[in-house]
Amino acid sequence: MIILNEIKIKYDHLDTLLEEKLQDIRFSNNVNVIIDLKEIYRKFFRPNMLTVEGSKKLIIEEISSDVINIISHYRNYFYKKGKYSSFYFLYSKEECEIFKKIYPEYKKSHYEKHFDSIEDADKIAILKKVTEVLEKIIPNIPNTIFINTSKYDEFVVAKFIVAKSNSNEINIVLSNDEVFTQLVDGHTFLLNIKGINTDLVDSSNAVANITKSKSKLSSNMIPFILAFGGTKHYSLNNFPGIALIKAVNIIEQLLKENSLSDNSFVEFPEFDKTQNTFILENYNELKLNYEIITGNKVLFSNTTDISTLFNKPKAPHSWNYFLELNSKIFTNFPLMLDMMLKGETAV
Model pTM? Predict the structure, then answer.
């Protein structure tokens, strides 16, 4: 499906973006690919995309095959570079109750558009069926897992994956969600999936990527920028007169006056030294936005329970199993099995 070609970035462009990282001797041969499925689905809601005509069964087969073949595309690429890859698909078909109870407006526009829209009811129904297919098949692919994030949210689970990964492993995040950009660090990078226009986002350019500015602030400052300037992804409106560029200016001033340091914070700072009246007047709202954006309160209160999402029985990944999938389910849009299992042992 043409829409999904944006996600399957051409290898020569991946070389331009990733070659330096993949050759860095600090990193091992392991690459973790974190796929924010909601951002892939979001592309189907563009105007004139996914016109539901003809056989819905065929449409479901095509989309399901194309999403699964994302694994084939990237696994084959990393294998050619001498790397072994693990894949994490993150998605939920329901609203995240743990967030909704604490922050009622959380992702309100996202849920209304992608879960409740009468206008897009056919698309929603099709993508729900696609998700059911993915949930059944993806766990059977070696070193690949599909995580239902309904309880803890996609970003919180992604943050958990990054936190538990070894510092010498490369993490690649596929997402256009600006909140996910705060994940980038010395071994975690984000591809803002836009086909030939895809950029590699690292800690040096993360702020510039989401604010379209020339700011040299590090990715540590992203939660503060979005707490001030808002994010439509999570239904957080900016404060009157405070857009992202203005938020950057405020934070640069806070750093200059030593009211803030360029570090990764767990708790929202007290800002005891600041003379900024805007912060003093809106402190509680800013703190709440920060808590939503970082997901720290949810993550650190539920780390043990989140870890159970990764409990996965040994996959029955025989060649015959996958051949049967192609012969019975993906007859029109086959899975690229040779690429999907590159470097893996089929029993």
Answer: 0.93
Per-residue pLDDT of the chain (347 residues; tens, 9 = 90+): 566 788 899 999 999 999 999 998 889 999 999 999 999 998 888 877 666 666 888 889 999 999 999 999 999 999 999 999 999 999 988 888 888 888 888 999 999 989 998 988 988 999 999 999 999 999 999 999 999 999 999 999 999 999 999 999 999 999 999 999 999 999 999 999 887 888 999 988 999 889 888 888 888 899 999 999 889 889 988 888 888 888 899 888 888 888 788 877 778 888 766 667 888 888 899 999 999 999 999 999 999 999 999 887 666 678 888 999 999 999 999 999 999 998 886 54
Concatenated DSSP letters of 309-342 = GG--PPP---HHHHHHHHHHT-SSS---HHHHTT
Superfamily in which the 2-211 domain is placed by CATH: 5'-nuclease (3.40.50.1010)
Record the tokens describing residue 109, joined without a space: 């526009």
Produce one character per residue of 165-192: b if its CB has 16 or more CB atoms within 10 Å, e if not. beeebbbbbbbbbbbbbbbbbebbbbbb
- Taking the alpha carbons at both ends of the chain, their separation in whole angstroms is 31
Long-range contacts of 283-290 (CB under 8 A, 24+ apart): 285/239, 286/227, 286/228, 287/227, 288/103, 289/226, 289/227, 289/228, 289/230, 289/236, 290/223, 290/224, 290/227
The residue ranges of every structural domain in the chain are 2-211, 219-296
Rounded alpha-carbon distances, angstroms, from residue 87 to 100, 196, 243, 305 = 28, 22, 35, 20
Beta bridge partners of 185: 188
Structure-block tokens of residue 36: 């924010």
CA distance 132 to 326: 17
144-148 vs 200-201, strand pairing mode: unpaired
SS3 99: helix
